[in-house]
């Protein structure tokens, strides 16, 4: 951490955001990333996943829950259906493509909101310290202590009939604490550095110091955790769907498909394998992306 | 000592706020449990009132919460269900199952996770390191219920290496496979954390000093590097005890283990508030006590924390 900070200071002196400067941390990271196969591999998978989420009709022959034929129920791959059919006799490939949107949208939205909360609270608590910091830290502890699956289940059962956005709110509520703690730690490590004091001596206000000097230099590790977090959120959302308390039919999602598959997987493994494959590939891509970005941002490894 | 007291004082409000939040959430679950008790038969108003008074349902939420916590701490009483059965009685056997499951998973994480992490860290960039990194990323990416079903089919059913469900074979046999599944995520995390920590510590100045003084490599690694590398791992392992017990719900469902996870999950859907609150309160307590112990241990392991 200390080395990282030192290099940020050296690379980006003064008020300019670090990413504009040639030879800055972000610029170096990009040069490093360009050469990594894993980076491009996960980017390709994620671009495909995002395209499926945004324009499912480009990939799927049929709409969600469309042209289902109960006589084809649970039939394995073959004929016109490369992934076979699901329990309702819908084309499994189309269903899985349409399931992408829920996972990707919730994963990204939850992370963006959690990141915003983390940046705001981390900056305020870390920068001002004192009573404000104590309150923010204790509130963070409270939410950190709530067990994820049980807490989410209680809330989701209390408010039935929830869609993607309600799921997002619940997952944000239980998922903003880790990044907030990290952000606060980063801010505390940076707020007393020479360049922050120099900015203050030059008459910069608190808001300007926080946004222009501390934020660009504190965000890198939080950003990495956010990328890893997208994968974890997608996995967590699928777990809630799988338990039957998350999204409900007629919504289409990978977690719901796995929920149905749990009863029949012994005889009809394709029901489990295909959604699990898509889910794992997406989560894995976010995790690998986070990993390579972390390596690229860590000057110690260069 | 001042550090310990300070941490303890911080933990108390966190405990109160967390449990109150859970209490409020659980009792905002839809439906009236007293009416549900009677099924579709009409109930005289006087009986309803008497039952509501008996369960303190007419008092403000904060009073109900206070009475409940007083019961928990003064009499060890977790309340009773709306059918009159004491919650603690309902849970006694189930706690044992979940505790055994979580303990198996935890030992698995500790031994295999740290082992893999140390090997990978010492051989950074070699084949073993790459294999551990790739394997752990994969394990983290696959949701735990997919791991569970796959393990159950392949290792349990097809290869017949482990019992597939239930607790008939007792500990440890029945708990090996579920424990490995439950611990797989944490194991991957511990291995990666250990690896990073070992890699960082191997480059520290004190290691160079030790090498310059002519110490043997085995001694440098054993006495200096490992000891310092394990500090962050200890933190994670401590916090993970609570996570394992709370996360057991999925694993217990797959392997049909009659633990608290299954019980709570059913109780949430049946709106059995007292059971949910009882279990969650205990889980939060375990979580907070474990974090507290870890923090204190951390202070012992790393003097900078204690004095800072």
Automatic annotation (TrEMBL), chain A:
Gene3D superfamilies: MetI-like. Residues 100-290 form the ABC transmembrane type-1 domain. InterPro entries: BP-dependent_transpt_permease, MetI-like, MetI-like_sf, OppC_N. It holds the Pfam family OppC_N. PROSITE patterns: ABC_TM1 (PS50928). The keyword ATP-binding does not apply. It is a multi-pass membrane protein. CDD domains: TM_PBP2 (cd06261). The keyword DNA repair does not apply. Keywords: Cell membrane, Membrane, Transmembrane, Transmembrane helix, Transport. It is found in: Cell membrane. The chain crosses the membrane at residues 37-62, 104-128, 148-174, 214-234, 272-293. PANTHER family: ABC TRANSPORTER PERMEASE PROTEIN, OLIGOPEPTIDE TRANSPORT SYSTEM PERMEASE PROTEIN APPC. Belongs to the binding-protein-dependent transport system permease family. This is ABC transporter permease. The lineage of its organism: Bacteria, Bacillati, Actinomycetota, Actinomycetes, Streptosporangiales.
Automatic annotation (TrEMBL), chain B:
PANTHER family: DIPEPTIDE TRANSPORT SYSTEM PERMEASE PROTEIN DPPB-RELATED (PTHR43163), DIPEPTIDE-TRANSPORT INTEGRAL MEMBRANE PROTEIN ABC TRANSPORTER DPPB-RELATED (PTHR43163:SF7). InterPro entries: BPD_transp_1_N (IPR045621), MetI-like (IPR000515), MetI-like_sf (IPR035906). It is found in: Cell membrane. It comes from the Bacteria. Gene3D superfamilies: MetI-like. PROSITE patterns: ABC_TM1. This is ABC transporter permease. It comes from Sphaerisporangium corydalis. Keywords: Cell membrane, Membrane, Transmembrane, Transmembrane helix, Transport. Residues 95-298 form the ABC transmembrane type-1 domain.
